[in-house]
Amino acid sequence: MWPFICQFIEKLFRETIEPAVRGANAHLSTFCFTRVDVGQQPLRVNGVKVYTENVDKRQIILDLQISFVGNCEIDLEIKRYFCRAGVKSIQIHGTMRVILEPLIGDMPLVGALSIFFLRKPLLEINWTGLTNLLDIPGLNGLSDTIILDIISNYLVLPNRITVPLVSEVQIAQLRFPIPKGVLRIHFIEAQDLQGKDTYLKGLVKGKSDPYGIIRVGNQIFQSKIIKENLSPKWNEVYEALVYEHPGQELEIELFDEDPDKDDFLGSLMIDLIEVEKERLLDEWFTLDEVPKGKLHLKLEWLTLMPDAANLDKVLADIRADKDQAIDGLSSALLILYLDSARNLPMIVHPSCLQSGSNIFSTGLSGKKMNSNPNPLVQMSVGHKAQESKIRYKTSEPVWEENFTFFIHNPKRQDLEVEVKDEQHQCSLGSLRIPLSQLLMSDNMTINQRFHLSNSGPNSTLKMKIALRVLHLEKQERPPDYQHSAQVKRPSVSKEGRKMPVKSQPSMSPGTSGSNTAPSTPGMGEDKPVREEKPQPPEASPLGHRDLGRSSSSLLASPSHVSAKEPTPSIASDISLPIATQELRQRLRQLENGTTLGQSPLGQIQLTIRHSSQRNKLIVVVHSCRNLIAFSEDGSDPYVRMYLLPDKRRSGRRKTHVAKKTLNPVFDQSFDFSVSLPEVQRRTLDVAVKNSGGFLSKDKGLLGKVLVALASEELAKGWTQWYDLTEDGTRPQVIT
Predict the structure, then answer these.
(1) Which site among 273, 298, 308, 603 is 20 to 30 Å from 451 CA-CA?
(2) Which residues contact 727 (CB under 8 A, 6 or more apart)?
(3) Considering the entire predicted model, what is its pTM?
């Protein structure tokens, strides 16, 4: 099959990906693939698992262990910027689920085929000419992580590819099924964790600063950090959607927060089939790879009920009937299938640039001022918002996307929908649907075309909306009943883990229709425990992106994730004055009675400019020269940046680590979302650090520079060498 798969891939690149890239950004209008050859080495299926238990009799579920290691030649060109780049090889490893359903009593026996990844596959790309791409506006954040996020938007659960084999199959139902259930996770406390912190070069043993990463499929949550505590109490609650529970687990990893690489404290995996059987688990679980460590969890399996018979009881249980609050535990799940729109108004130029105006082409027929919009749909319930993908240059867009919202109280909340033009941010129409209307509908479902307000006379939006009440079935158990929940061992070794970064930037609404659930900390039955150093009261759920990256902000987290800012970072050397003191001491040792040069700590070359079109500050870290050496082999430098006064972890940007060199070359581009008037009141804090040096965590400060951004030349930008100093307060510019 491989030669024919290659033909399909080439067609996909040229007919689907290339037009989408061209339409995504004006700078990429001349983008094209000059060569697409994925090589002769075919995709391999290393193993197949077939599920025979806990599956519907009218479906077949297969898990395929796939791997692809190919020497490909994919060349691209952006003629406007005379830029050429490409990919020499690609590796993909992951578990792909194939579902054959429904099984029918007529040929071809299978009604449809659905394909998706249970979790993000491992992706490695060998680029050529990547430095050229980083100079192109709109591509400066390109990376394997970004591409993996794009793949997730299409192929990682709950997203899927569905191929109907018979016309009678309801394609929308197959492509976006209703979740099997909701898992409510009470992340309560841990005991007897290991102390990973050390002081005085390891002579003094300390405690740990533990936090947890919780994963259910493609949904990722992060707890708050408890400082210096081996028996932390979090008392937080998360709610996650479960689409495919055969083979899906609840994964929890504990880490000790450190300035650089966080230390692993233990993990556990729990089969969700067992949780569904038990309905309610309130247990202490033994952590893997930790001698005595234990984790207290309370797990609730919530079924989705298509009627409102139990709604009042559910509202009372979560205290949603007491006030008008829209935060807290959820009583229902809203499932929305966005199908298509018809007869959207044309865009009239230039009036659509006026803020708040609705743009119609009526009255201007015959004039060539009209153009088709680039429509997208923004949906919100309370403060939780989501956004569809963009459909370019059409007044008859088809989305076929699925969205979900956790609902606190459907009796008091509304679904607000607005169709907008992406290019001019004009409203093309809107509507408001009280969720109480669904409570009175048959099967709590509405499937129809809705007429848009403040739009064209015949403008409609087709959606299917379903409300499901979250119900906890409490089973009667004998006093001596023993549950059968299984704790699985992780398939990834501790050495092979990616250490997570605790938070990602909170950005503009994303384009993904993913279903990461919001966290609801502090709402459990256990009362929060006061800590000596108070943490933010809410946890920080992460969008489904690579946890190891914090430098890119191209792809936004799902807009319905109520992302809270985590604890202010303690990784900044500003908060560690000992780093500056050690650096000054090292300078005195280097001087050793002689006079050091004008730049004793070396220099760093930066390009700094503000893009008004993207409303971002762009910083390119080119290279450093003449850095000080930490050992006979030199140093292992990397660059860390903050846009002061913001020193939160989400505002941190870091380059890769250059090994054993005093003259590292990075050529990495970063951006900060900030307006020009605002950025001119800010200061760029740039620190060159050693990833393995003195200090307790094998890190050290190599030098700093503080760059004031109150310059009229910021819009044009500049490239300069800056002197590094021990505290960054007296930089000298070398032009």
Answers:
(1) 308
(2) 580, 704
(3) 0.54
